[in-house]
C-alpha cells in the first residue's frame, strides 16, 4: 500500500467524524473559545469509538499540513491551535511523545 493509498484511506475513515455533531461543535468552539471549553472537547472525544478517535487525530494531522487553497479559508493561522488540540487528544490516548 502506497503512502497515497494510506492517506486516502485515512481521509475516508475520518469522514464519519464529520457526522459526529458533538465533536464538530466542540472543536469549533475550541477554535473561538477559551480553555474552559477543552473539557467539552475531551468529553465528546472520549465518547467516540476507538476507530473514530483515531480518525479524529488523523484528520487533525491532515489539517495541520494543508496548504492554502483558492476558495477555502487559509489554514496557516490556525495551525498552532490545531496542533495543540491534537497534542491534547494524544495525551488522552496516552500517545504523547
| Total count of domains | 1
β-strand amount: under 5%
Determine the number of helices (DSSP H or I, runs of at least 4 residues): 5
Estimated helix fraction: 55-70%
- Given as residue ranges, the uncertain stretches (5+ residues, pLDDT < 50) are none
**Rg computed from alpha carbons, rounded to a whole number of angstroms:** 13 Å
Distance between the termini: 26 Å
- Averaging pLDDT over every residue, what do you get? 74
Tell me, briefly, the overall form. flat
Listing every helix as H and every strand as E from the N terminus to the C terminus, the arrangement reads: HHHHH
Largest sheet: none
Question: Assembly state here?
Answer: single chain
How would you classify the helix and strand content by structural class? mainly alpha
How many strands?
0
General description of the model:
With 97 residues, the chain is mostly helical. It has one domain (3-93). Helix content is 66%, strand content 0%. It is built from 5 helices and no strands. Helix 1 (3-14) crosses helix 4, helix 2 packs antiparallel against helix 3 and helix 4 (50-65) runs antiparallel to helix 5 (79-93).
Which properties best describe this structure?
97 residues; mainly alpha; single chain
Write the layout of secondary structure elements.
Elements: H1 3-14, H2 21-32, H3 38-46, H4 50-65, H5 79-93
Amino acid at each position: 500500500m502506497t503512502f497515497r493509498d494510506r492517506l486516502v484511506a485515512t481521509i475516508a475513515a475520518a469522514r464519519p467524524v464529520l457526522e459526529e455533531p458533538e465533536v464538530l461543535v466542540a472543536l469549533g468552539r475550541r477554535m473561538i473559545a477559551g480553555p474552559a471549553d477543552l473539557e467539552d472537547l475531551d468529553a465528546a472525544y472520549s465518547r467516540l469509538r476507538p476507530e473514530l478517535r483515531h480518525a479524529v487525530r488523523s484528520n487533525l494531522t491532515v489539517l495541520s499540513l494543508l496548504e492554502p487553497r483558492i476558495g477555502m479559508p487559509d489554514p496557516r493561522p490556525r495551525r498552532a491551535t490545531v496542533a495543540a488540540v491534537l497534542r491534547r487528544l494524544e495525551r488522552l490516548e496516552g500517545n504523547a511523545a
